[in-house]
Each structure stands twice: as structure tokens, then as C-alpha cells.
Amino acid sequence: MDNLNRLIEKISLENQIGLEDIPSIDLYMDQVIQLFENKFAGSKRNENEKVLTKTMINNYAKGKLFIPIKNKKYSKQHLILISLIYQLKGGLSINDIKATLDGINEKIIDGDIDLERFYNSYLSLSRRNIESFKEDLKHRASETMEEVAKLEDKQPAQLEKILLVASLVNISQLYRRAAEKLVDEIIAERES
Q1: How confident is the model at residue 47 (pLDDT cuts 50, 70, 90)?
Q2: Which of 74, 93, 146, 163 is 20 to 30 Å apart from 173, CA to CA?
Q3: Rounded to two decimals, what is the model's pTM?
Q4: Angle at the Cα of 78 (from 184 to 45), degrees rounded to 5?
């Protein structure tokens, strides 16, 4: 696919909130939303899409997806957890996210986790995932071109895109299902 490198650029893979992006002072909700909008603007599919809204944050708080807020301000820990929620919601239900993060929230409350270190580990894995994704996308595009060539169609570019979309959705579903099974294991371990 000729436009593969442009596609990779358009999806803004490197957009993450790093620890250096999080102020050391607590933020009000509007400031949190602004931080996320600024950082993830390139990740939006269109201009009308919202990265984060007050309703989303309130629902996360009501659903106890993160530790309680103090004085309507969000600490560095809250911002890390909201960032994790933002990343997880692309592939998991809110209930699965809650089940996944419950253990982290408990460790924060008990003082048993260095959340910044944990988040840096996540960011490190994320950077490696991006590199793997770029290589995998090129490989899948190449395989798609090979399959389309077998079809001898008069509009191969269109079929190539359709097959690549189907292939990417398929692999995405496989990864999501694997993640859901891991969430099920987390839930089962908590219940026993």
C-alpha cells in the first residue's frame, strides 16, 4: 500500500500522556479535559469527537474507576488513572476496566504501589507495541496485496483497502478477546 506511511502518521501512535506532561499541582476538571484534548487532539477521528468530557470523568468517578477525588481537584495519580482508562476504553467495557483497575486503586489506597513507576512501565510497553505495530501493519499490507493479486480484479486498490480493513478488525478482535479473558482471570482471582 503506497499510503501506508501516511496512514501510520495520521493515527498519531505516539500520543501519550507522559509523567513529564502531568503538572505537579492538582488540576480542576476543566484543566484535566484541556490537558487530554491538547495531548490527544491528533488521535481524534474528526473535529467533533471529544477525547474526554465532564460526563465521562463524572461517570468514571461514580463507577469508582479511580480513587476518590479531593476538593474537586485531580492529582497526578488521578491523571495517570484517567490516562489508563482512556487507553483501555478503546478495547474494553467500563465494567472490564473497573475490574482491571480495582487492584491498582486498592494498592494506591494502601500505599503498596509506586504508580508512577507502574505507569512508566506501561509507557515503555506502549512504545515497543508501536514499533511492533508498524512492522505488523506493513506485513499485513503486503499479505493483503498478495491476496488481491490472486483476484485479478479491475479495481485492486479498493479491494486491497477493504481486505486490509477486514484483516485489521479481525486481529483487533483477537487481541480484545485475549484481553477480556485476562480480565476474567483477574475477576476470578479476586473472587476466590
Answers
A1: confident
A2: 146
A3: 0.90
A4: 75
